[in-house]
Amino acid sequence: MPSIELLNIISQYISIYFGLLIFIGGLIGNLLNVLIFLSLQTFRESSCAFYLAAMSLLNIGQLLTGVLPRIMNVWFALDWPDASLIYCKFRAYCFQLCSLASFTCMCIATIDQFWATCSNPRWQRYCNIKFAYRFFLITSFIWILHGIPTLIYQTHTKSVVNGTTRCEIIDSTFDKYYNYGFVLVLTSSLPVFLTALFGSLAYRNVRLLAYRAVPLVRRELEKQLTVMVLVQVVFNFCVIVPYIITYMFNFSVNLDINTIEYAVFQLARNVSINFFYLYFAVSVNY
Prior knowledge:
It comes from Rotaria sordida. The chain crosses the membrane at residues 16-38, 50-78, 90-111, 131-153, 180-203, 224-245. It is a multi-pass membrane protein. This is G-protein coupled receptors family 1 profile domain-containing protein. It is found in: Membrane. Helix content is 81%, strand content 3%. It is mainly alpha-helical. The protein has a single domain, classed as Rhodopsin 7-helix transmembrane proteins (Rhopdopsin 7-helix transmembrane proteins, Up-down Bundle), CATH 1.20.1070.10. Strands 1-2 form a two-stranded antiparallel sheet. A hairpin with a 6-residue loop joins strand 1 and strand 2. The longest helix is centred in the middle third of the chain and has 38 residues, at 172-209. The mean pLDDT is 83.
């Protein structure tokens, strides 16, 4: 059986090297997504492509505020949130805003493809670029307001034992909402459920497009966008569900930090967190 020290070293290596791969690959992939979606006329007129382009920009912000500080903390022992109160609040706020807005774009892109492939014109009218702009601005404003409590309650605390400063939430009620409402619902369970549901419905509609009087160009575009969304949906399920399981296990089981079981769980949790960040790094240009 591996020792606790070995498991901790493996966990550190995963955070550094797998994290670097996610960070560098995610930046390149998301930048390419934005360039492709904004450079081609066909995609510039598509509401689904707009949501995916916006999601790619938000994913870059998430990688900068989520993955990069983790790498710097493990590799160079530089904990920026603990060192600066401004960065403590800024990182927590941007982390919430980018993650919520990114998952919102993914969900509405999946719903948009369901609308676009419906035979009912009543639903198809929502698939236009003007509606996409308005919806994105409204939801972004909602998430901007949603993050205000984070700016208030995410602050520095000093340990009475060793005097070290930590960046953490000081309000117990908001801490419960953050753990259960924000993490387990808004940025994990709810997006997985919505994308899986409407992705399946969009796939069913796409299979029926061949039997409808739909222009060939539009039919192929909708098929291409639906395939992009569906692959993203399947990938999201694979990388987010392990994160949900380990996060819930962390609250339901108390382990002694000096045991091999705790070291194994921390390794599994570290792997699941890195898998979770893969969502923000993966390219949608399949």
